[in-house]
Amino acid sequence: MSSKIRLLLATGVFLVLLAAAGVYLRGISVRPVRTLPRYGRFPEFALPDVSGKLWRGADLRGSIWLASSFPGKCSFCAVMALKMADLQASLEKARGVVLVSFVSDPALREAGRMPELAKEFGAKPGRWVFLAGDPASVPPGTVLLVDPAGETRAEFDVTGPDFSSEALDSVGDLIREGRGRR
Questions:
Q1: Shared-domain flag, residues 15 and 95
Q2: Domain total for the chain?
Q3: Distances in Å between the alpha carbon of 148 and those of 19, 59, 63?
Q4: Are residues 87 and 158 in the same domain?
Q5: Closest of 112, 82, 113 to residue 99, by C-alpha
Q6: φ and ψ at 98, to 5 degrees?
Q7: 38: in domain
Q8: What angle do CA 79, 82, 85 make, to 5 degrees?
Q9: For residue 19, what are the domain limits?
Q10: In a domain, 106, yes or no
Q11: What's the whole-number average pLDDT of the chain?
Q12: Are residue 25 and residue 108 in the same domain, yes or no?
């Protein structure tokens, strides 16, 4: 191989690596931004959290949030909680993203067991909120993605094999969509 060809190859490899480093360092995604559909506004609510603080839908405006429903303490709920805990860990560095779990079992709410439930599942205050209530808009086994304006943008089956990757990709799409509007 001639020295000119080696130089051209080396230069080409260098430029590709430089471009890849630039994309990585600037946090620019090479995956195109999907525009997620809009399914309508998430219904308003006013429900207490584990400490008794009242949360309203308006309190979450400006945040991206993932809404789930826990019907009670059951084997299915444990699986769902593990998947939500994985999401919480994966979203650790994402600012403005909150997990909201609605606890629909009156026995858990009335017995004051919600703080125990949140602790058992590893909920981090400010990142994963447990609210006492049963919004009909979140069927058990489903996680809804809600944008900063309060619009439901995606629905995920928590039992699906691609739940975590689909949810994380969609959260990323909303984050990038928000950056594009600034």
A1: no
A2: 2
A3: 32, 10, 5
A4: yes
A5: 82
A6: -130, 140
A7: no
A8: 150
A9: 1-30
A10: yes
A11: 83
A12: no
Residue 54 and residue 48 in contact, taking contact as beta carbons nearer than 8 Å: yes
Per the document, the length of the chain is 182
The predicted-structure confidence for 118-158, as pLDDT tens digits, reads as follows 888 899 988 999 998 877 788 888 999 999 999 999 999 99
The distance between the two most distant Cα atoms of the chain, rounded to a whole number of Å, is: 80
Two tokens at 145? 């993605």
Whether 40 is covered by a domain: the verdict is: no
Distances (CA, A) of 105 to 5, 102, 112, 121, 173: 70, 9, 11, 16, 33
CB 44 within 8 A of CB 56: yes
Which residues 6+ apart lie within 8 Å of 5 measured at CB? none
Take residue 63 and report the two structure tokens written for it.
């945040």
- In angstroms, the Cα distances linking 139 to 39, 122, 136, 142, 147 are 15, 22, 7, 6, 18
Q: What are the Cα distances from residue 108, in Å, to 66, 76, 85, 102, 138?
A: 21, 16, 19, 11, 18
